[in-house]
Design goal:
Number of domains of chain A: 2
Shape of chain A: elongated
Helix content of chain A: 25-40%
Largest interface: A-B, 43 and 53 residues
Number of helices of chain A: 19
Structural class of chain A: alpha+beta
Strand order of the largest sheet of chain B: 1-2
Helix content of chain B: 55-70%
Number of helices of chain B: 14
CATH architecture of the largest domain in chain A: 3-Layer(aba) Sandwich
Strand content of chain B: under 5%
Strand content of chain A: 15-25%
Distance between the termini of chain B: 40 Å
Oligomer: heterodimer
Number of strands of chain B: 2
Radius of gyration of chain A: 38 Å
């Protein structure tokens, strides 16, 4: 009985403890419930805040389609789905060179196509290039996203809408357009599908443009078209492989036109051939030949204090080691300096180079920028090929443009640096809008040497190999260059680079125009000649005459002082061979 | 069913008159809403990763069958059987977790899954409810039998579970298990002062996780400094609420879900908000709140410590998971991948919820009354328990 009693007491005690523990638990249950209730209430308030107070009316544009598009883009050759904000490129007069436009592309959500057969039939009517079978196959693919046609005309958008299929929808994208087409492709460049510039200004100013900042180039679209037209004419006439050229302002190095032929449509770079993509003007390095005589002659007068009447014995070829230097237009006599230049005597120029000396000639070429890669806004630039080591024979050959290979752009820049009065200029393509003076004050030749070279250049056109470059009243001066190309390590006299560098007006030079034609073939009406004087000089003349009218440059009156420029050199020229 | 008589002593009739039918209906409503939301939220996700449009929906519906079966079936079980089952599940899950660590492949930087019959199961989902039941059992035992080291055993189970979870690593699950345990300790009458110390320790633990796990750090950083990191998901989630407005864009008409990477699972609440608007948000909040409050209220009338602790822990798990999911979607909490109970796609999560809530339904059933009299002398309001006790005493 006692035991029973104790047990019962224990039981009651336990009961009491449990009861108090349960009371505590119940109390704390209230706290937990309150916690959840409170937090859920906060959530409700937050949801109300977002859905009602912060609600936006702006329709949300899904990016899901873009995910599909990325995959799709990789398959297509299509080009230039460019970032929306990519800025325009203009020429110096504000003509549009590159811009970004919105285009619409048609796609189908096949889940929402109710009548595939009819829709396909209608679509083929609107887009005759599509085939019914292919379109139907796409519409029945069961995919949520199928491209039907890219970049369609606005009129067609309306026609597609009139079909009334909810599954046909448009995706807007942004494309890069080049209004001048192939004409400016080697300067302006082109881009890939992801808005990245692949060449030209589009490449070198990629980020700049993507940041929405416009660019103005020094290019003048009118001159660009003229230059391209005239080079193309020569290339076509002489059945040449290629051609290139540049018009540069000699006072500041601004490129007014830059051409490399063949070229291609920048909207479809995928279809371009290798030689079309190649930019000869900046990437091609060639032994440019006699045009280099301008530099050796300038070096000669700059270093030797001699009068124009100085003579050189060109009666016999020079032999140095196993090399023999011959004249192409051989006079086989003693020539004055102007005669050396106008007849383009290799012997005479080699003798001038020899007189200057290896070190000084090389240093002079370097000052002119001929031995280094050009620092240019178009980044596709080639490094000149310079003899290593530079021996004396290299000095002789470099004097008439052999053994040193440069780009056509190098040449134009170096000529400009001499004829502008002797100040080094660098080629530039982007217009400096700060208005800062862009030419340097670095002198490469004295004013006196510059003046002599001007006279000599004019003499080449009035009396010598460049007579076909003359344009009445515009005082064109220049120098021909005909270089044999190296084929398999040997000079091949059938394959030439024929070029002409022209400057005008010669009494106060403003423009340098360089045109080169790759592998021209002599024609009947040129008596089989394909030299610079026959191929490139006429192209320069045509360019000058068109340029003059476009730019409104008046010709000098016949017999006026500018028109007589360079006449004084005639006294050093034997009159019997004014034939060329 | 209404034909069942209150005096019918069959198992079904007893169940019918004792189970919390209101709560059960709420679970069914959630499950139906879940199918609806997975149907609208999962096709874009499936298409994006190259699966068939209805890949997730089909799997969700297939899993829903067993989950509902668990929910209803387990609600028939007695306390004793629930403890047995929980023990089995707990041991099984721990073994599976070890297996996952040893053999499982890594998905998204964690080893959480094992493959059974073509389905990948996440054993840590099942360890949570099983732990809650075992811990409740041990703690209540300590209260019943003096000298039984229930609390110590619980602590041991906790350390074991959390160690395995952290090795995966699965921090979300760790937080949930810790919260379950904390709620149970709290309910069991743990002194407030010590609780404060524990909370402090928890904070230190979170700090350590922040320092120690890169993905945790980036998530918390993203929450605290949205301008710094990639807040793509959360931004879209917030936009879903804004786009949905009060009435929503209409079922299937949402557009933000097209871009939400985890629209069918961790961000399904946002899809609901976009397509069915603030209404759906309130309905869901109401449903979860209803289940929680009804469950806790039911415990207020229970005099069984085991029931209070087990159901308290399980409901806390249920409520907390919903809370974290919704809080993440609303950008009130750092983004933590957490499924919305009974709604989100996720086989293991669905089954685990069926299991947990089945147990809750079973334990919250009204006790069989042995007579009409309530036993007038009782100190407590649980006559049935007293009878049993009296039997034991005599």
């Amino acid at each position: 009985m006692m035991a029973m009693h104790r047990l019962r007491r224990n039981a009651i005690k336990l009961e009491g403890e449990r009861s108090s523990a349960l009371d505590l638990a119940h109390g704390r249950l209230v706290l937990i419930s309150a916690f959840f209730g409170l937090v859920y209430l906060v959530f409700a308030i937050r949801a109300f805040d977002l859905a009602v107070i912060q609600a936006f009316e702006m329709p949300y544009e899904s990016e899901a389609v873009d995910v599909v598009e990325v995959a799709d883009r990789a398959e297509t050759q299509e080009v230039s789905v460019v970032a929306k904000g990519r800025a325009d490129i203009y020429d110096r007069n504000g003509e549009l060179l590159a811009t970004t436009l919105k285009t619409s592309s048609l796609y189908a959500d096949t889940h929402l196509i109710f009548d595939p057969e009819n829709t396909a039939r209608q679509l083929v009517k609107i887009f005759p290039k599509l085939s019914y079978g292919k379109v139907l196959h796409k519409l029945q693919s069961g995919r949520r996203f199928e491209w039907i046609e890219r970049n369609i005309h606005p009129d067609k958008i309306e026609q597609v809408m009139l079909i009334g299929e909810p599954g046909l929808d448009f995706k807007e994208s942004y494309r890069r357009f080049y209004p001048q087409g192939e004409s400016t492709v080697h300067m302006v460049g082109y881009g890939d599908i992801d808005a990245n510039g692949l060449a030209g200004i589009e490449r070198s100013f990629n980020n700049h443009l993507n940041e929405g900042r416009e660019l103005h180039l020094t290019m003048d679209v009118r001159l660009q078209h003229i230059l391209r037209r005239e080079i193309k004419r020569s290339v076509d006439k002489f059945e040449a492989k290629a051609g290139a050229g540049v018009i540069m302002d000699v006072t500041n190095g601004e490129i007014l036109a830059g051409v490399s032929l063949p070229d291609f449509d920048p909207h479809y770079p995928g279809g371009a051939e290798k030689d079309e993509i190649f930019n000869m003007l900046t990437l091609g390095v060639y032994e440019l030949g006699s045009v280099f005589k301008i530099f050796s002659t300038a070096a000669f007068f700059e270093n030797k204090n001699v009068p124009m009447s100085v003579t050189f014995d060109a009666s016999e070829p020079i032999k140095v080691g196993r090399h023999t230097i011959r004249d192409y237009h051989a006079e086989n006599r003693i020539l004055t300096a102007p005669e050396v230049f106008m007849h383009s005597s290799n012997i005479g120029s080699a003798l001038m180079g020899q007189a200057v000396g290896t070190e000084k000639l090389r240093a002079f070429y370097k000052d002119l920028g001929l031995l280094d890669t050009i620092d240019f806004e178009v980044r596709e630039v080639a490094k000149p090929l310079v003899p290593q080591p530079w021996r004396e024979i290299n000095t002789l050959t470099a004097s008439y443009g052999h053994g040193v290979s440069t780009t056509p752009l190098h040449l134009a820049g170096a000529v400009a640096s001499i004829v502008n009065g002797g100040y080094a200029v660098k080629p530039k393509l982007v217009l400096d809008e700060t208005g800062e003076k862009s030419s340097t004050d670095v002198r490469v030749v004295s004013a006196e040497t510059a003046q002599r070279i001007r006279q000599l250049l004019r003499l080449v056109v009035t009396e010598g190999t460049g007579s076909k470059a003359d344009v009445k009243g515009y005082r064109v001066g220049g120098k021909t260059g005909t270089a044999e190309k190296i084929v398999n390590g040997k000079y091949d006299n059938k394959k030439k680079i024929s070029s002409f560098v022209g400057v005008f007006p010669m009494d106060a030079p403003q423009y340098v125009i360089y045109i080169m034609v790759d592998e021209p073939v002599g024609q009947k009406d040129t008596w089989g000649y394909a030299t610079g004087g026959w191929v490139a000089a006429p192209a320069v003349a045509r360019t000058v005459s068109s340029m003059a009218s476009v730019l409104g440059i008046p010709p000098a009156a016949e017999g006026s002082a500018p028109d007589q420029f360079g006449e004084s050199l005639r006294q050093f020229v034997s009159t019997r061979e004014v034939s060329q | 069913m209404s034909r069942l008589s209150r005096t019918d002593k069959s198992l079904l009739a007893q169940w019918w008159w004792t189970v919390d039918k209101g709560m059960m209906v709420a679970f069914f409503v959630l499950a139906v809403l879940g199918v609806l939301l997975v149907a609208t939220a999962s096709p874009p996700v499936a298409e994006r990763i190259g699966l068939g449009s209805y890949h997730f929906l089909i799997r969700h519906v297939i899993i829903l069958g067993p989950a509902v079966t668990l929910l209803v079936g387990l609600s028939f079980l007695s306390q004793k059987n629930i403890r047995r089952l929980a023990t089995l599940v707990f041991v099984g899950s721990l073994v599976a977790m070890v297996l996952a660590l040893v053999t499982g492949m890594e998905i998204k930087g964690a080893q959480r899954w094992i493959h059974v019959f073509g389905f990948s199961l996440q054993p840590s989902e099942f360890v949570k409810p099983a732990f809650a039941i075992l811990a409740a059992w041990m703690m209540s035992m300590q209260k019943e039998k003096q000298g039984f080291p229930g609390n110590a055993v619980t602590a041991g189970l906790y350390v074991l579970t959390v160690t395995l979870l952290l090795m995966q690593p699965d921090l979300g699950m760790t937080v949930i298990v810790t919260s379950i345990w904390a709620a149970q300790i709290f309910l069991a009458g743990f002194p407030f002062r010590l609780l404060v110390v524990l909370v402090a320790l928890g904070a230190v633990g979170m700090g350590a996780a922040y320092m120690g796990f890169d993905h945790v750090q980036s998530r918390i950083d993203r929450y605290l400094y949205p301008e710094k990191g990639d807040t793509f998901q959360v931004d879209l989630s917030v936009q879903s609420f804004q786009n949905g407005g009060v009435l929503g864009t209409g079922p299937g008409q949402g557009v933000i879900k097209m871009d939400l990477p985890d629209a069918h699972a961790d961000f399904i609440f946002s899809v609901a908000a976009e397509e069915m608007g603030l209404m759906a948000v309130f309905v869901l909040l109401g449903l979860y709140g209803f289940i929680l409050l009804r469950g806790y209220n039911r415990l207020m009338h229970s005099n069984d410590m085991f029931t209070v602790l087990a159901v308290g822990g399980l409901l806390t798990m249920f409520g907390l998971q919903a809370l974290i999911h919704m809080g993440s979607s609303l950008h009130l909490l750092p983004t933590k991948g957490m499924t919305l109970p009974f709604i989100s796609y996720g086989g293991s999560s669905l089954l685990s919820m069926g299991f947990s809530m089945g147990v809750v339904l079973a334990l919250t059933r009204h006790k069989n009354r042995t007579g009409i009299s309530k036993g007038g002398l009782s100190l407590t309001s649980a006559p049935q328990y007293k009878n049993a006790q009296a039997k034991a005493a005599s």
